[in-house]
Amino acid sequence: MIASFLKKLLLKNKKLEFYFWYLRTLDKRIFLPTIKVQTMEETIKDLVATNKSISRYGDAEFNVVMRKANPNYQAHDGALTQRLIEVLESNLDNLIVAIPRTFYSMEGEKLHIKYFWYTYINKNGKELFSYFNKNKVYGNAAMTRFYLGQTDKRVSHRIAKLLKQLWDKKELLFIEGELSRMGVGNDLFDNATSIKRILCPSKNAFNSYDAILEAAIQHGKDKVILIALGPTASVLSYDLAKLGYTALDVGHIDVEYMWMLMKAERVMPIKGRYVSETRDEEDYEIPEEYKSDYENSIIAKIGV
To answer: Tell me: the pLDDT tens digits for 259-285?
Structure first.
């Protein structure tokens, strides 16, 4: 009982510390414009109703845009920076440009997520907001980050159910890193009609961009294209949307779904998959019961 009380007191103190810090740093954010960002539900329902494509931006993409850093799976490339800026400032009728809702509201986020994004905005807000259009409504990039950072896990299960509507009874083409292996060992895509895969490099995918785009055009007709390739996915979804395809930059969707099934409390490795956010490595061997279906779904390999 005493331990429980101390735990609650410590949690309360962390919240108090956060609110004091929030107020002390308010001057770094107070003059930034209000940016409109949809909820996860609104973004998914928009995609379901319209068959639009989506390009998503998180801190990795923003760091590339601002030329401040690159994720550990993509080396610096000036062309990638320019393309990401182009997509971020684009205004296609059939493309949703998505950014984290944390630029608009931190409601429902865990305390450490709030710390991260307020710190990020404090440091980069003035430069980053210069790329945003205050008259535009952005999609919510966290639609595929629906579990680990959420305080209410009931929301996570509701979002997962909504996401499945995007590919219900549809043919899918996955364009993914060699070790992403979306859907292997879970039921996330069981309601799709079929799944085909194009495997791409797990690192430095943008180096093979032209070949990846060509393969997507060749194999993606009449399919919903799901892309998990880091910053490259944001650009690829945009280019495919311009050509009339439906392309969804889904990022960590499968990893988040697996963490939800595992009831994970933190970032952790997943057997048979590369997880960029953890240095701990699980065995990348695919369990025997899934290997045949997975290998039969591969229709092309680019740079692997």
So the answer is: 999 999 999 888 888 887 776 666 788
What are the angstrom distances between the C-alpha of 192 and each of 82, 166, 174, 196, 229? 35, 9, 12, 11, 21
Write out pLDDT tens, residues 216-226: 999 999 999 99
